[in-house]
## 1
Amino acid sequence: MSTAVPSALRVEGLGLTIGGATILDGIDLDIPPGSLVGVIGPNGAGKTTLFNAISGVVTPTSGRVLMDDRDITGTSVPARARAGLGRTFQTSSNFPRLSVLENVRVAAQAARGGSYSLLRFPRGDDAATAAAHEALTQVGLEHRAHVPAGDISHGDKRKLEIAVLLATDARLVLLDEPMAGVGSGDVPGLVERIRDLHRVKGCTVLMVEHHLEVLMGLVEKVAVLVAGRIVAFDTPERIMADPRVQAAYLGSAA
Ligand SMILES: Nc1ncnc2c1ncn2[C@@H]1O[C@H](COP(=O)(O)OP(=O)(O)OP(=O)(O)O)[C@@H](O)[C@H]1O
């Protein structure tokens, strides 16, 4: 069904029950294209599970996920990636033995209709290699291009994940705690790279983040998830002032 206002992402009545436990409880979200939205909530609220259901890692027991107004609920993770959905994980998801450059090149190659082949050696004139170098320059990692991804700092690993998203065709990106474990010196740079994804590349961005001060200064709207339900969805200012949010999340997170 088409809607008057287009959605980059729409989640309708999303539910997930595992072994009798309700993890997601009828979640509704409507995210217009080009939004930058934060998702917060206490530990165990279901934030990562929501991202897993949106990206196809888990299958919801009820409800639908629509991307660009198209129902993707039953599609695979790779099909969603091909449709333009990109994702980072709480723990780094790079290939540790491949170089920083290879990590980005392989993703760029797959986005251009190639395979995730690790055997295909890059050539200097390869479009995927060029895209990878450009993305690494954008995140400030070009000088680490030939270092194994497992050997770079935690902050640089997070920048590498953003470079992978920049080099692909991702239009809707889900960032799961991009600041987790990152030293305070690396935070401003990462914030700028997330802004690049949003403003320069034009991605719609949803991010889970426990660093509230950073998140509130970055996003346009915040969804608050408590026990598998969205209890508030509003601007950062209103969210910070909402007594329900303070009771449910901010107080318990202190
Ligand atoms: N596959 C699973 N089987 C059983 N329970 C699960 C499964 N996946 C998640 N859960 C449970 O669902 C709840 C939500 O977990 P989830 O990781 O989504 O929370 P979260 O909000 O991301 O938490 P955190 O902020 O700590 O990362 C937790 O109680 C978790 O134990």
## 2
Amino acid sequence: MKQELAWEEGIAKGAAVAAWRLPHGEEAFLLQDFSGGSILEEGWNLADLSAGFLAAPFIGLPYFLQADSVTSFPLHSAESSKPFDAPVENLAKKTEFMGWVSEAIAAIKQGPLQKVVLSRTDEQDLPADFKVMTALQELGAAYPNAFVCALSIPALPGVWMCATPEILVEQNAAGIFRTISLAGTQSGVDADGFGISPSQARWSQKEIEEQAFVSRYIIDCFKKIRLREYTEIGPKTISTGNLLHLKTEYIVDTKAMDFPQLPGLMLGLLHPTSAVCGTPKQEAVEFISRTESHDRSMYSGYLGPVNLGNATHLFVNLRTVEIKENHAVFYAGCGITEDSDPAKEWQETQMKCQTLQRILMQ
Ligand SMILES: C=C(O[C@@H]1C=C(C(=O)O)C=C[C@H]1O)C(=O)O
């Protein structure tokens, strides 16, 4: 495959390389920054960046890959017929994670913390013939409405891949700004393995409240910049392949409002949202940093092409894996509220890890 060669040659020459396919896109792109990319400085501004690719960690400044070269390639549907055997549960991790969830529930009952998103990792070996670009192709085919991406930056160990359903900030060529509130999770397949239609999904108070925290957070960000004219659509159930979520969309016509700086302002206010961090934000960040035993690094940060073809598409880095040689670290998290059940939350992280595992581990 030509793009596999371009991917490997770029990395061998010290370039930072990103390859991605936008949701519902018919082609994929491969961008190279021959200098290896750079870390942006405090006070950076989205509107001032040249065409390129941004990739930010959960906490900290983003990497910027300038578009020294961008090529596109068609994505073929690469259906795999091999069945997926879910990896065996790691019982020590399960006990540890459920302990964190119980601590979070106790902290939320005391306040002021109302919601916190806790994550964990799952380490697995990939097949010996694993190839990044083939995996990207297969992820794209399996999850047409996800942003699928592979990223390699010399300053970061390993290759990062994701298949995320969550837009953080988008601005299309017509000046339409979009962000979404995404939370609440249930399996997208029934006990017999058949897909559940979004219209049949039933949600409990816990999930409705959990998603409302994210929606309120976005509206508070709009209020901070005195933006009142936005269109709100939802909440609606969406299917991301193996999972269902609740989603509300927020849309602003920045041309009609003469507000071109909106995407940059909102990016600064939104990240990290209550979908990956919690409410109130500061208390949630502190709880996560003293509880989780792993470094989230790029997981639950954001990434995507910026100022490319007059458009910006930034997504939350979810359904994420970090790959070193053939060793993979999968990352997944879930929103904890006072109504959480530790065993169900563990199960949710299992399903989220399996989004990538069912494709990469075949
Ligand atoms: C944190 C993750 O997902 C986020 C949390 C969700 C939830 O708690 O239900 C749902 C979608 C995402 O906003 C993840 O996939 O790791």
